[in-house]
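Re: that backbone. Tokens:
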């Protein structure tokens, strides 16, 4: 059996057995996606140009708008690519449905893999809907490929697309030859976000509420400074961020400075700490975190743990038997 790019890549993730059973007949019935926002969505023209040596297919279907690209020297295998989080909103780009192409599109085509991707039928944090809409591309691919089904199907994605990938492997374990979840997001990541924002509240002496998250984030920027010009409180907050994300390590300080990740981390859990009720906010908690800080920063770990506001999770949503997969 030849070793191929995607099989080799699975050393970074996990390998799963392949089944020739049609995708539509597999999986536990009754997956319940988080509902799409009740607002109009605007599909963007999905037209795109194929890379040299391939054919492009595009259009609209029940799951949004889609791209499919099939190499002229197709190896018989298909990669489903799930895109990451796209902020939703009543106006602006938040209502536009766009296809997210795989990061390694050219490599796939060059090595003979076909790929397919969807916008999903809505934006927002919707991994369940993303999985349903992405899996529907398999039958659409077969139809557009003159009735020739893929011999093997893989699933991959980054960020929320990584969550889609993990969810797909869990719900439909025999539907895919393998999967690669890159930087997968999900409740544990959101717990980290909430933990950082809770610490930022405590050190800055501010508090997120449902109607002030942007204002508080701006005030925190003044209180903490920037990675190039931290205030004393900013150095303390950077110390906490590094500890929460794994402790002192090479490039941790530089990582916080990259595109001012430090500031975005501080407000990444603002919605959770403000008490928003969307599933991605409701599931979070920082109750399992124990805060630590270098005492040279003027605080002790015990003092930090006493100061930090604890956000409790909504177990009706987070529980394994909750309404959403």
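Recovered sequence:
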């Amino acid at each position: 059996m030849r070793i191929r790019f995607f099989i080799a890549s699975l050393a970074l993730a996990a390998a799963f057995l392949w089944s020739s059973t049609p995708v539509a007949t597999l999986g536990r019935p009754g997956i319940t996606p988080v509902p799409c926002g009740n607002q109009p969505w605007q599909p963007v023209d999905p037209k795109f140009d194929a890379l040299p040596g391939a054919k492009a297919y595009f259009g609209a279907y029940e799951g949004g708008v889609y791209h499919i690209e099939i190499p002229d020297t197709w190896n018989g295998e298909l990669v489903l690519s799930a895109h990451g989080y796209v902020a939703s909103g009543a106006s602006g780009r938040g209502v536009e449905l766009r296809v997210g192409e795989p990061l390694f599109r050219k490599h796939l085509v060059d090595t003979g893999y076909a790929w397919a991707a969807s916008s999903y039928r809505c934006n927002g944090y919707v991994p369940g809907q993303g999985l349903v809409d992405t899996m529907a591309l398999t039958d659409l691919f077969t139809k557009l490929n003159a009735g020739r089904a893929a011999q093997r199907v893989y699933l991959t994605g980054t960020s929320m697309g990584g969550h889609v990938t993990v969810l797909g492997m869990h719900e439909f374990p025999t539907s895919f030859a393998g999967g690669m979840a890159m930087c997968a997001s999900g409740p544990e990541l959101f717990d980290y976000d909430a933990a950082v924002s809770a610490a930022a509240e405590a050190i800055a002496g501010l508090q997120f509420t449902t109607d002030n998250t942007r204002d508080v984030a701006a005030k925190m920027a003044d209180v903490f400074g920037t990675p190039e010009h931290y205030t004393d409180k900013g150095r303390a907050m950077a110390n906490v961020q590094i500890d929460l994300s794994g402790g002192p390590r090479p490039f941790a300080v530089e990582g916080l400075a990259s595109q001012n990740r430090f500031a975005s981390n501080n407000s990444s859990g603002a919605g959770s700490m403000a008490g928003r009720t969307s599933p991605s906010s409701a599931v979070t908690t920082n109750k399992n975190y124990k805060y630590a800080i270098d005492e040279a920063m003027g605080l002790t770990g015990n003092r930090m743990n006493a100061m930090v506001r604890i956000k409790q999770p909504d177990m009706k949503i987070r529980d394994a038997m909750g309404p959403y997969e």
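The chain has 14 helices and eleven strands. The chain has two domains: 5-185, 188-318.
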